Amino acid sequence: MALVVQKYGGTSVADLDRIRHVADRVAAGRALGNDLVVVVSAMAGETNRLLGLAHQISKTPDMREMDSLASTGEQVSAALVAMTIQALGGKAKSLLGHQVRITTDNAFTKARIHNIDNSKLLATVQGGDIAVVAGFQGIDADGNITTLGRGGSDTTAVAIAAAINADVCEIYTDVDGVYTTDPNICPAARKIERISYEEMLELASLGAKVLQIRSVEVAMKYGVPVHVRTSFSDKPGTMVVGEEGLEAVVVAGLAYDKGEAKVQLVGVSDRPGVVAKIFSLLAEKNVSVDMIIQSPSRGGGNSTDVTFTVAKTDLARVTDLIESQAKEFGATVEYDPDIVKVSVVGLGMRSHAGVAAKVFGLLAGEGINIQAISTSEIKISCIVAAKYTELAIRTLHEGLGLDKSTVVEQ
Amino acid sequence: MALVVQKYGGTSVADLDRIRHVADRVAAGRALGNDLVVVVSAMAGETNRLLGLAHQISKTPDMREMDSLASTGEQVSAALVAMTIQALGGKAKSLLGHQVRITTDNAFTKARIHNIDNSKLLATVQGGDIAVVAGFQGIDADGNITTLGRGGSDTTAVAIAAAINADVCEIYTDVDGVYTTDPNICPAARKIERISYEEMLELASLGAKVLQIRSVEVAMKYGVPVHVRTSFSDKPGTMVVGEEGLEAVVVAGLAYDKGEAKVQLVGVSDRPGVVAKIFSLLAEKNVSVDMIIQSPSRGGGNSTDVTFTVAKTDLARVTDLIESQAKEFGATVEYDPDIVKVSVVGLGMRSHAGVAAKVFGLLAGEGINIQAISTSEIKISCIVAAKYTELAIRTLHEGLGLDKSTVVEQ
C-alpha cells in the first residue's frame, strides 16, 4: 500500500466525461489499496475565461483580485471531481488552499509556496477519503488567496508529495511522458524512461513544456519521485528521479525555444564600462538577458559589436532604451526575432568532453551557422536562424544517437 | 458620514455592464463620505449553471461539495466588482466568507450564521477600502465552506450590518421596494414607504419574494434598518424598521402563495387519536402541514372530514402514506392542488377587531368561497380556489383601502 499524489491537468478535467474518466482512474488506484491525494487544475479554458473577464475591466487588473478570481477555476474542478468519485461509490473530500493551509508569499499571480500543513491532508486520507485538492492556489500570511502562476498545479502536487512524504507524485498530462525532443518536429523522438531532476530542469527551462520549472525544482530539493504520464492510457510514462538511481546517458534530450530575439549593437566604442552600462540599464527594467557575445566590430577600427538575446515579450518594451543607448555609444542597432535556441542536455556531458565539438560539427555539416553559444556543465545551447529549427533538431537527434538509448559507462 | 452596507443581487451584477453600474453607484455613495461594505450575489444564472453541473453528476450530490462549488459564483462577482471599483479610481478589496470569518453551523446548503467577526471588515473600511463581500457563504467550525440557501446574500448583508453596527443595510433588487401586493396582478398596488419587521416577516413568509425570510428575522433581532430599493434608479424604496418609528396602518399588505395543495380526508371515524396519528406520521416524514380544519362529515354519521394543506412539493412524496392512512380510518382522500392562500397582514389588526369580518365580507361579495382560514395577531390567511387569485387580491386591495395610505390612530 502506497501513498500516492496524482495531478490531473486542465485537459484531463475538461468536461464531465473527462472528469468521470479521472474518477475511474482514481478508483482503480484506490482498489490497489493506495492512499490518494488528487490535485486538479481548472477545466481547460476556464482560467482564460476568467482572466478574459478581468481584462475586459482593466488592462492592469489588481493582482490580489485576479488571484481570488482565477482560483475559482480549481475550486470548481475539485468539487466536481470529488462529487464524481462519490457518485461512483468512493469516498472523497475536496480541499482548497486555505483548507489544507498551503501558505505562500504574497507575490500575487506568481506566488511561491512557503509551507504546506500536512495534518488536514493526512487526516483526510487516514479517514479513508480521497483528498481532492484544488491546485494552483494558496493563501498568504494575511489569508489572501494567491496563485502560483501558469502550470502551478504541478508545483502544488509535487510540494504536497514532499509534505506528506508520498511514495510518488504522478503528473497526468496530455502527452505520455518526456521525450528526447518534440515529436511534432522530430518523428524519431523517443520517450525517456527515466531522467534526472537536473536534466529535466534544464529541458523545462530551455523550452520543453511538459512540467512547470518550479515543480521540478521542488521535486529535486525534496527528492520526490515524479512520474509524468498520460491519463488517456495505462502505459508508464517518464520517471523523474535523482541521478543516483540513473544509468547516465551522454545526452538525455534536446529542447528548442523560439521565444528569444537577438539584438546586435554594431560599432560600440570600445571603452571600459560601456557594455556594463547597457546591461545594468536593462536589469533596471527587469529585462533578463540570456546570451551575450562581444566581438571586434565588423566595421573595424577601435570598436566592438555587442550581441545579446532577450525574450521577445520584453523586446517591445525596451527598444527605445536600446536605441538611445546605441546612439550614445555611436553604434547602430540591428534586431533579429527570427532565431531559435537549440539546446542539448545530458548529465553525461560532465565527463564527455567531445559533445560540444560533435554538436558544432553536426550543425556545420548541414550548413547551419551558429550565431551564439552558451554552455553549462550539462547543457550546450546554440542560437541559429529559426528556419533551421526542424533541421537542427533532427540532425542533432540522429547524430547524437538519441533515436536509440545511449547508455555510457562513466 | 455613515457606515452603510449595500447588497446587490444577481441581476445587478449579471454582466460587466451591470457591474460597472454597481461600481458607479458605490462610487457615488463613497463620494458622500460614507464607509461602505458591499455584499454581492453570483452573476444571474451562475448558481444554476453550477448546480446543473452537479446534478449531471448525481441526483443527490454531496452537500459539502455543492457548497464549495456554488460559493465560487459569489467569489467571482466579488473579485469582478472590486476590480471595477478600482478601475474607476476607487479603493476596494474583495473578502470571502473565510476571510471575513463568517462562521455558520454545518447544515450545508442551508446553513445559519453563528457569528461574524467584524475586525477584518472594520479594518478594511477604516483603511479607506470599500469591502466587497461575497454573499451567501460562510465557513463552519472545521473550515468547510457553507452556503446560506437561496437568497442567502440578503442574510449575509443584514448580519454584517448588525455585526459592524451599520447605519443602514440597503438591499438593491430588481423591484423598487415592497408593494402593498404584487403589482403584476393588481395594478393599484402601491409602494410602501415604511413597514415593520413583523409585517415584512409575515409578507415574506406568505409568498412575497422581495427579501429572504431569514434576513428579516436577523434584521428584527438586531434592529437593523433595511432599505429595499432598486439599483436601476435613485428613488428611495421601502424602509423596513422597528414598529416604534412607524405610523401604524390597519393593513400593510397582501400576499398570495400558490405553493400549497389541499388534502381532504372524507369520513374519518371520529375516534380520539385518529387525527393526531395522521399528523404525527406526516411530521415524521418532515412534511409541514399549514392549515388544518376538522368538520362533521359531509357523509353524515359518526365521522368527520379532515382538511389540511401541505406544500405542493411535499405532496408527491406522501400520497402513499396519506392513502394508506385514509384506508385505515375508513375515509376517502381528495386532493386539490388548484388553491391559493391569500393573506392580509398589518400591525393595526391587533387593535382593530373588524378586519377579519371585512375580509370575509369582501370575498363573499364577489362569490369567492373560503375553504380554510388561519389567523395570527397580525395576519389573516384564506384558502380559495386558485382561479380567484387576481379577483381576491384586487377586491381586498381596494376594499381594505390599500390603494391609499391608511394610517390609523391606535
What is the helix fraction of residues of chain A, given as a range? 25-40%
Please report the two chains with the greatest interface, counting residues with C-beta closer than 8 angstroms to the partner's C-beta: A-B, 35 and 35 residues
The strands making up the biggest β-sheet of chain A line up spatially as 3-6-2-1-9-11-12-10
Question: Number of folding domains of chain A?
Answer: 2
Number of strands of chain A: 20
Rg from Cα of chain A: 24 Å
Query: What oligomeric state do these chains adopt?
Result: homodimer
Biggest sheet descriptor of chain A: 8 strands, mixed
Q: What does this molecule look like?
A:
The structure is a homodimer of 410-residue chains. By secondary structure, chain A is of the alpha/beta class. Chain A has 2 domains: 3-174, Acetylglutamate kinase-like (Carbamate kinase, 3-Layer(aba) Sandwich), CATH 3.40.1160.10; 245-410, VC0802-like. Helix content of chain A is 36%, strand content 26%. Chain A has helices spanning 16-31, 46-57, 63-87, 97-100, 119-126, 152-163, 197-205, 213-222, 274-284, 312-328, 355-365, 389-399; strands spanning 3-8, 35-40, 92-95, 102-104, 113-116, 130-134, 137-139, 145-147, 168-173, 194-196, 226-230, 238-241, 253-257, 260-269, 289-296, 303-311, 332-336, 339-345, 372-376, 379-385. In chain A, strands 3-6-2-1-9-11-12-10 form an 8-stranded mixed sheet, sandwiched between helices. A 4-stranded antiparallel sheet of chain A has the order 13-18-20-19, with helices on both faces. In chain A, strands 15-16-14-17 form a 4-stranded antiparallel sheet, covered by helices on one side. In chain A, strand 11 and strand 12 form a beta hairpin. In chain A, helix 6 runs parallel beside helix 8 and helix 11 packs across helix 12. Chain A is globular. The model of chain A has no long low-confidence stretch (mean pLDDT 92). At the A-B interface, helix 2 and helix 3 of A face helix 2 and helix 3 of B.
